[in-house]
Amino acid sequence: MFVSFLVGNTGPFKDITGITTVCESLKKEFLERNTFKIGNYNYNKISYIYGANGSGKTNFLSALTKMQKIIVMSTVLGSNNNKLLEVPAIKKELSSPIETFKFDVDSKSKETFFEIQILLDEILYSYSFAIQDGKIQRELLTKKKKRTEILIKRISPKYEDIILKSGLASFKNMVSVVRDDALCLAMAAMLNNSLANKILSEIMSYNVINMASVGNAPNFDEDNTNEKAIKRYLKYLRIADPTLTNLKVDLESKLDKHILGDDDLENKEFIIKNIQVSIQSLHAIYKKHKRIGEIELPFLKYESNGTIRMLKALPAIFETLDMGNTLFIDEIENGLHPNLVKLLINLFNFKETNKNNAQLVCTTHDTLLLDEVRRDQVWFADKNIFGETIIKRLSDYPNVRGNDNIRVKYLQGVFGAIPNILDLK
């Protein structure tokens, strides 16, 4: 499960900032409904990130996606497969360097930092790395149950400066395959280290969707387009569009397989999967209000933006709920009625629909969601006049009580993170 994410020196984040889902022990409001307990700690089911337009909310979720891409690209680079490096999608990603914070001249010569914490089998794993000019400068993996133990420690781009212990010690004999521009943990996972595989499988399972990109089809695959899944989506889609009777989803999959070939990589394959999605919506047709048949229409062309956005979110939401994973949604309210947003939110809050302690992290402007929240599950992204964004927890603000009307205080500017319209002359 997801515990925390930090990022520094990229996008609007000059200094290291981020969020955690760990609850504060002294905050007791909505403890039963809004949190779940593992070991000695409670964790928030939902984390909300608020902020003015341009404050860095989207950039924060993009930073998580960037971290995931660096992990994937590490295995591509580590394969030393020139043919694979010429694949257009990979070539495009590798030609998009990390952008450091732009509004301070010293930031260009500093490293970009990522850190994520996850919980697996009640063990806390912390994984971080720093990258500069395409080279991995530092990399650290630790685990903690009763005490903290180092599993990977890297202090330079050179593989000779990598220390491996405990569950990663078996990778010592192959550590020479780690290039200066590739992550050690990614290469260990690629070469079948079981612990590395387990950790990266969790990190890579975190799905990030942007509700603003309405023109794209949902992320469908063979597992979420069966009859049972479609029936599940329709239950909620009909709330947005009661005329909808059914959906037809056709998939055309194309697997682009590349044999890595290097002896050190045990002839492993790198697979790029492309899925073309065609969605048709079915509606009843009537004569004098008597149903006489059905009409089939291209979903993305004829449905409302709100209905399309609902379908964009639902497969990811239900997969997350079923697997007990973590989902990140940017602008969750985009194009949706507030009641529909609340409906999606409550899928994570209610035990009946969230039996596996799935988590949701969402950016939003919807202040109605600030009713019945814990002070430690709300975050504010605020950008100063120097272009620097800091993400701060509501519970860190002084004199905020559990029974305060958070929505009113936020709109009054008590916590910042809103457009300053008072400056208009």
Structure description:
It comes from Megamonas funiformis. Residues 49-371 form the ATPase AAA-type core domain. By secondary structure, the chain is an alpha+beta fold. 26% of the residues lie in helices and 31% in strands. It has eleven helices and 18 strands. The strands form four sheets. The protein has a seven-stranded antiparallel beta sheet, covered by helices on one side. The chain has a six-stranded mixed beta sheet with strand order 11-15-16-5-17-18, with helices on both faces. It has a three-stranded antiparallel beta sheet with strand order 12-13-14. Helix 5 packs across helix 6 (194-204) and helix 7 (227-240) packs across helix 9.
Mean pLDDT: 89
Largest sheet: 7 strands, antiparallel
Total number of helical segments? Answer: 11
Q: Using DSSP, what is the number of strands?
A: 18
Provide the succession of SSEs: EEHEEEHHHEEEEEHHEHEEEHHEHEEEH
Principal-axes geometry comes out as globular
Pairing-aware structural class of the strands and helices?
A: alpha+beta
Backbone CA Rg: 23 Å
Biggest sheet: strand arrangement: 2-1-6-7-8-9-10
The fraction of residues assigned to DSSP E strands is 25-35%
Low-confidence stretches: none
N-to-C CA distance: 48 Å
Q: Helical percent range? A: 25-40%
